[in-house]
Amino acid sequence: MGILSHLSILHLLGAALVFCQYEDYDFDDEYGGEPDHQPPYYFNPNIQVEVPRFPFPVECAKECFCPPAFPLSMYCDHRKLKTIPNIPSHVQQLYLQNNNIEAVPAGPFTNVTFIREINLSYNNIKFHMIDHGVFAKLSNLVQLHLQHNELEDFPFPLPSSLERLLLGFNKISRLPGNAMEGLPNMTMLDLCNNLLDDSVFKEKPFSNMKNLMQLNLCNNKLQTMPPDLPPSLRHLSLENNSISHIPENYFNRLPQIIALRMSHNNLQNIPHNAFNLSNLLELNLGHNKLKQVFYIPRSLQHLYIENNEIENINVTVMCPTLDPLNIKQLTYIRVDQNKLTSPISTYAFFCFPLIRTIYYGEQNVTASRPTQLRTPVFRRFLTPEEFQEAEDNHETLNQETEEDHEAEDSYFHPYY
């Protein structure tokens, strides 16, 4: 009995310590109200910068919240802040999004040594209100979020350690030639929803970014394909511009492209071998003015050419030869809102034996009203029982399903 009594006392003491550790933190107060729908930004704890050991509780700005479980992070988001609070030296992740911050002075960052991520998105920051060199001094900074602000210019200088820079939804209209110099580690740059036009390429701003893998230029004012992009590029987003032409052999300098998104442009003709790329997996050319199809590379899996002016899909153009040892990987085609009057030739299934879905939807054969082919959604590899079930559920005669648009709905998101 004596041993059991001692064990009971030890258990009670342990429970009291755990309770005391958290009793001062009201998690309901800190995270009450509507949840933040922004995608989370995760860092691998195995690669965090080595910091000096410090006793708990750690220092935290009074305007912010520093969770005991994440002692290297400081959460100051959604607090109607107008200024940046002083940042303790040990902080590695700083979250200041969704506030009313207008300036980024050097003062709060004076003692910051180990910081790796700063999120200043959804504020009111202007370029001239950022102290010169404030970011450049942060030698461990890897990720910087400045989307949804009032920036008129590219926020340089920046530290050479930077890998991901998000500048979408600003008012940036120019890219000085030296703005992106000294960024050898940059792998992802998001410039969507700005005011960039073709003149920004005169100084070849991206040519020296040897490790750049993702470039987002959607929703700008581009009329031509951006020249002098680095050959390391794998993801290129050019949606919602006014590009009307792809130069012959343009992609010869970009052999590693995996995903290309050019929907909502003014493309009319595509050079036959424009996309002869060995790594291309996704190609989105929807909402253009295309009248003809083009060569499909072996690697391509998802093709989107909806909402164009295509009257006939010539499978021979898409697949001029058959090679049983190197079959084409195409599995999904979306061709709705074109001018097709008949389904794709069955020869397509010899050229593309892995095709699972062709989404025909409605076709714009006449200007007065859209029409439907006999099978709005064609699916392969259904057993007779599955096909009958689909017929009974009107699945093949209904609108597209979530599965049909799974790839399209996964926007070329900068936050992954």
UniProtKB/TrEMBL annotation:
<comment type="similarity">
    <text>Belongs to the small leucine-rich proteoglycan (SLRP) family. SLRP class II subfamily.</text>
</comment>
<keyword id="KW-0654">Proteoglycan</keyword>
<protein>
    <recommendedName>
        <fullName>Osteomodulin</fullName>
    </recommendedName>
</protein>
<keyword id="KW-0130">Cell adhesion</keyword>
<dbReference type="InterPro" id="IPR050333">
    <property type="entry name" value="SLRP"/>
</dbReference>
<feature type="region of interest" description="Disordered">
    <location>
        <begin position="393"/>
        <end position="416"/>
    </location>
</feature>
<dbReference type="InterPro" id="IPR001611">
    <property type="entry name" value="Leu-rich_rpt"/>
</dbReference>
<keyword id="KW-0272">Extracellular matrix</keyword>
<keyword id="KW-0732">Signal</keyword>
<keyword id="KW-0765">Sulfation</keyword>
<dbReference type="GO" id="GO:0005615">
    <property type="term" value="C:extracellular space"/>
</dbReference>
<keyword id="KW-0677">Repeat</keyword>
<feature type="compositionally biased region" description="Acidic residues">
    <location>
        <begin position="400"/>
        <end position="409"/>
    </location>
</feature>
<keyword id="KW-0964">Secreted</keyword>
<dbReference type="InterPro" id="IPR000372">
    <property type="entry name" value="LRRNT"/>
</dbReference>
<dbReference type="Pfam" id="PF01462">
    <property type="entry name" value="LRRNT"/>
</dbReference>
<dbReference type="InterPro" id="IPR032675">
    <property type="entry name" value="LRR_dom_sf"/>
</dbReference>
<feature type="domain" description="LRRNT">
    <location>
        <begin position="59"/>
        <end position="93"/>
    </location>
</feature>
<comment type="function">
    <text>May be implicated in biomineralization processes. Has a function in binding of osteoblasts via the alpha(V)beta(3)-integrin.</text>
</comment>
<keyword id="KW-0433">Leucine-rich repeat</keyword>
<comment type="subunit">
    <text>Binds the alpha(V)beta(3)-integrin.</text>
</comment>
<keyword id="KW-1015">Disulfide bond</keyword>
<dbReference type="Pfam" id="PF13855">
    <property type="entry name" value="LRR_8"/>
</dbReference>
<dbReference type="InterPro" id="IPR003591">
    <property type="entry name" value="Leu-rich_rpt_typical-subtyp"/>
</dbReference>
<feature type="signal peptide">
    <location>
        <begin position="1"/>
        <end position="20"/>
    </location>
</feature>
<keyword id="KW-0325">Glycoprotein</keyword>
<dbReference type="GO" id="GO:0007155">
    <property type="term" value="P:cell adhesion"/>
</dbReference>
